[in-house]
Amino acid sequence: MFIRIVGTQLPGSSCRPAGIDMAYPNIHVGVQRRSRPQELLDLQRGDAETVTWTVECTVVDADVRGPYIQGRPGERFLYLSWVAVDDAGTATMFRRAKLMLADVSTETLAAAAESGVLEARLGLTDATGNPLCARVKPPMIRWTATS
């Protein structure tokens, strides 16, 4: 099975979250690999119109597993990591969004295992205009089975 993440409404090329003295320039977002926080799948610019990632995984007895799937059984999730990229190309993480697979209904997960694709759609800007972070729950994220 594949998980396709579609992000819209990105925050822009820089941001300044509350309580931070200076803005983060040249921000990007990517999917974090399990146990490797510096390894991000397909970094996308923070000022893109839309971003999409596709992650391969397996489903065994309603447990989703794969190299980008985080957490224990029953508590699985994906991280979208926000980074600032400097002139040398070094990415420094400053926040993450947690997409909880536990929030996917058993019916939707079963349909996705059958169709081959579980899709997550979400806006990536929070209410203050900054990159979305913390646990992202429905209705802020919509999980569907697709092909």
Q: Write down the secondary-structure element order.
A: EEEEEEEEHEEE
**Coarse morphology:** globular
Please tell me the overall pLDDT. 96
Q: Structural class, please?
A: mainly beta
Beginning-to-end CA distance, first to last residue: 10 Å
**How much of the polypeptide forms β-strand, as a percent range?**
over 45%
The total beta strand count reads 11
Q: What can you tell me about this protein's structure?
A:
The chain is mainly beta and 147 residues long. Helix content is 7%, strand content 49%. The chain has one helix and eleven strands, in the order ββββββββαβββ. The strands form three sheets. A five-stranded mixed sheet has the order 3-2-7-8-10, with no helix packed on it. Strands 4-1-9-11 form a four-stranded mixed sheet. A two-stranded antiparallel ribbon has the order 5-6. A hairpin with a 5-residue loop joins strand 7 and strand 8. It starts with a strand and ends with a strand.
Write the topology of this structure.
Elements: E1 2-8, E2 27-33, E3 36-45, E4 50-56, E5 58-60, E6 63-65, E7 77-85, E8 91-100, H1 106-115, E9 117-123, E10 134-136, E11 141-146
Parallel strand pairs: 1-9, 8-10
Antiparallel strand pairs: 1-4, 2-3, 2-7, 5-6, 7-8, 9-11
Kindly list the characteristics that best describe this protein.
147 residues, mainly beta, five-stranded mixed sheet, four-stranded mixed sheet, 11 strands, globular
